[in-house]
Design brief:
With 244 residues, the chain is an all-beta fold. Helices cover 0% and strands 48% of the residues. Keywords: Signal.
Length: 244
Amino acid sequence: MVFAAGLLSLALFALPALAAPRGAARSTLASRVAGRRSGPKIPSNGINALTKGSSNVEYSQNWAGASFESAKNTYKAVTGSFVVPTPSAPKGGSGSYAASAWVGIDGDTCETGILQTGVDFTVDNGKVSYDGDTINVTVVAASTTSGTATITNESTGVTVSKSLKSSAKLCFENAEWIVEDFEEGDSLVKFADFGSVTFTNAVATLQSGGTTGPTGAVLIDIEQSNKVLTSTSTTSDSVTVSYT
C-alpha cells in the first residue's frame, strides 16, 4: 500500500442540516479528487428496514459499523486499527467500485459536524488501488470546532497527523467505527465487495476521562434496493463489518 495515496481524509467539516444525503466537499483536506464526499448516515428507505433483525440494528444506505448514540458531551476521542482490505467487484459486476473505512466523532445523531479519518479502497476493472497494510486511525476533539486526526501505517511505521479547525460544531454524542459507501459527485459510488474489515483495539475516550469499547453501540448495516449488503458484529474491543 502506498501510504499517502491511501488517505481518505484528515477532516473536520460541517454536515448539512437534517441529514441531507451529501456531506461537505473535502477538496482542501481530502487526498482524493475533488467531488469525493462523505455524508452523514442516510436512513434506509427499504420497506422492511424497521422490522429486520435485532432491535439494536439500524439500516442505512451508506454506513455500516457501530455507532454510540449518547448524550452530548460524552466522547472526545476514537481509535481503531484494521487491515486495509483487497476490494473486488461484486459478483457479476464490472467497472469501478469503492468503499472507505474510518473512525469518527458525530455525523450520526449529531448532524452539525463530524471529525473523522480513514482510508478509501477501490477497484477499477480488476485493478486494485492498494491493499494489505495494517493502519491505526485516531481522532481527538479539542473543542467543538477543532481537533486532531492521525493515521499510522503500522506496517511501515509512517504517521500522518493534522490539526484541524472549522466552523462545524461537534456535539461529542457519537463515537463510530464505520465502513462507508461514500459519494462522488451527486451519488453514491458503486459499493465494493471489501470482504471484511475488523477494527481492533477499538476504543472511545470519554470526556470524563474513562474509555469504552464498542459493546453496547448501535450496529448499522447497509441496505440498498431492499438488499442488505453488510453484516456487523462487535466484541468488547472490536468491530467487524463483512460484505454479504
